[in-house]
Specification:
Strands 3-2-1-4-6-5-9 form a 7-stranded mixed β-sheet. Strands 7-8 form a two-stranded antiparallel sheet. Helix 4 packs across helix 5. The radius of gyration is 17 Å and the shape is globular. With 247 residues, the protein is α/β, with parallel strands linked by helices. It has one domain: Spore Coat Polysaccharide Biosynthesis Protein SpsA, Chain A. The longest helix has 16 residues. A hairpin with a 2-residue loop joins strand 7 and strand 8. It is built from 6 helices and 11 strands.
Length: 247
């Protein structure tokens, strides 16, 4: 792979650290974690950079602010044209396939099919387990989401009451699209806007992998089945009014 960095963010496990430094010895790797995250760094390869920050005082629902801050801090150390952002408690193989996908669709942000929801199920819900794209665009995305979070810009009204979205993925997607399309966002179809700006990675090409869902207390070793986990696998499925899985 050329001109791409792997960004590992959040609470990083030793298992994840060891996997990436061994599997990608020639690819730039940035680890963005917390000052209280204890890692054995006795093996610190030449292609690795690390930033350790203090935890923000406000975590947000499902620790969404932690994700935004650690990702933004890590992106500050990325010097390549493309970046692949992953969580610190997971790992994936064969990022060459993601890199090729990036080259084929350079104007889109790639996401995984891990809880990428259909629009009729959850509006504006990409997956944040893997996010890849041009570094400047991913920076813009997380910067927009962080700004929206800090200023409480994202909410919905129900029974005359204001409710914020508790899903980090919705805040991330909506914050990005609202900032990128301030005039078109309220006028254009949500599924169409997502279809034009995102694409979905083929998870089968990334085996062996480890996927973690802390909210469900579950993990998968190369056996995550999107349809069994209310997830879509093709961005075109967003344009179908009926989800390809049972609700």
């Amino acid at each position: 792979m050329e001109n791409v960095t792997i960004l590992i963010q959040g609470k990083v496990t030793q298992e994840t650290y060891n996997f990436y430094v061994e599997a990608y010895p020639q690819t730039p790797i940035v680890v963005s974690t917390w000052s209280n995250n204890k890692l054995d760094l006795s093996y610190f390869p030449h292609n690795l950079k690390i930033v350790q920050s203090s935890l923000p005082k406000i975590c947000g629902e499902q620790n969404m602010n932690y994700q935004y801050v650690s990702t933004i801090n890590g992106l500050g150390l990325v010097n390549t044209e493309y970046v692949i952002k992953v969580r610190g408690d997971e790992y994936y193989s064969n990022f060459q396939s993601v890199y090729q996908h990036l080259k084929q669709t350079p104007d889109k942000i790639l996401s995984s099919p891990i809880f990428f929801r259909h629009f009729s199920h959850f509006k504006y819900h990409i997956s944040d387990h893997i996010i890849a794209g041009k570094t400047n665009e991913v920076k813009f995305m997380f910067g927009a989401a962080k700004y929206a979070f800090d200023n409480e810009l994202l909410y919905h009204i129900k029974d005359d009451k204001k409710y914020t979205y508790w899903e980090p993925e919705i805040n991330l997607t909506m914050g990005y699209l609202m900032a990128k399309y301030p005039n078109e966002f309220s006028q254009k179809s949500g599924p169409q806007l997502m279809y034009e700006n995102f694409d979905i990675i083929d998870l089968d090409k990334l085996k062996p992998y480890k996927v973690v869902a802390n909210i469900f207390s579950k993990y998968w070793y190369s056996d995550f089945i999107p349809a069994n986990n209310q997830s879509i696998t093709d961005i075109k499925q967003l344009l179908d009014p009926i989800p390809p899985y049972n609700l």
